[in-house]
Design brief:
Protein name: TRAF-type domain-containing protein
Radius of gyration: 24 Å
Strand content: 15-25%
Structural class: alpha+beta
Helix content: 25-40%
Shape: elongated
């Protein structure tokens, strides 16, 4: 038995999971416990594992950046230039990604609708029902968002 413990590589890979924080291979049965207690944090920009207590400081100085839409990695200084020129576009209603050239076509055909006051996404066919029960309202003049109970008073004082 002692000899087996020394030579045994541990459970087969299918019984193990890799911690996304520290990158250790952990037994699946102990994974949740490890993940909660793991004191590391994984920067998705530069792919570095860092002690969690140093996370905020690292985020300020990390020189790498990854576009959340196309997943391309680049220098953080290229971020502002990349975003308007990203080859992909993400629909804020259905969250799907498309080539930027297909944006206009998709916006017309997307089956989802975003309620701007409460930021809830619903099917376009459920739009009217949602508006009836939504507790929030957006002024069409000044774009201020407020509760429906504040609407009448706002309309009397809206300066736009």
């Amino acid at each position: 038995m002692e000899q087996h413990r020394k030579e045994c590589p541990g459970p087969p890979k299918k019984h193990r999971k890799q911690c996304t924080k520290c990158r250790q291979s952990i037994d699946k049965n102990k994974f949740e416990e490890h993940f909660e207690a793991c004191e590391y944090w994984h920067c998705r920009h530069c792919l570095t594992a860092i002690v969690a207590s140093e996370r905020d400081e690292h985020q300020k100085i990390c020189e790498e950046w990854q576009c959340a839409i196309c997943c391309q990695r680049m220098k953080a200084s290229q971020r502002d230039e990349h975003l308007p020129n990203c080859p992909l576009w993400r629909c804020t209603h259905c969250i799907r990604k498309f080539p930027r050239s297909a944006k206009d076509e998709h916006v017309q055909s997307c089956e989802f609708w975003l309620c701007k006051p409460c930021l809830t996404v619903v099917l376009k066919t459920e739009r009217d029902a949602h508006l009836q029960k939504c507790a929030w309202w957006c002024c069409g003049r000044c774009q201020t968002i407020m509760s429906k109970s504040e609407r009448d008073q706002h309309l009397q004082t809206c300066e736009y």
